[in-house]
Amino acid sequence: IWITTHTDNWRTLLLRAYWDGAAEPAVEVPYGDFFCNGWGVFAQVNSQTIAANPHGGFNSYWPMPFRDGARLTLENTSTVDVRVYYQVTYEVGGDHSDDAYFHAQWRRSNPLEDRTP
User: Contact at 8 Å (CB) between 37 and 53?
Assistant: First the structure.
């Protein structure tokens, strides 16, 4: 996956991935957090699986095997329209019947007592 958008959108865009017709997403995480930039401030990342590049482009190289189909969605949870540029590259074929599905979920909690409801 290669994708880019303005930094204002990194926490308000919600990335989801569904494998093989599943009703529940295997991936559900804010855009920036998925690419190791969860605070809305750029941090360069150069790893085997994630690249956060100096001019805003993010790459994900996580293997995400599926058997019959994959569906990726990006939900805009903000009140303003946003512009996103992306490319998803994939390959078809091979026996992935024994491969595990990729999963990623995001959670937040506030450990400070005066900040909890």
Answer: no
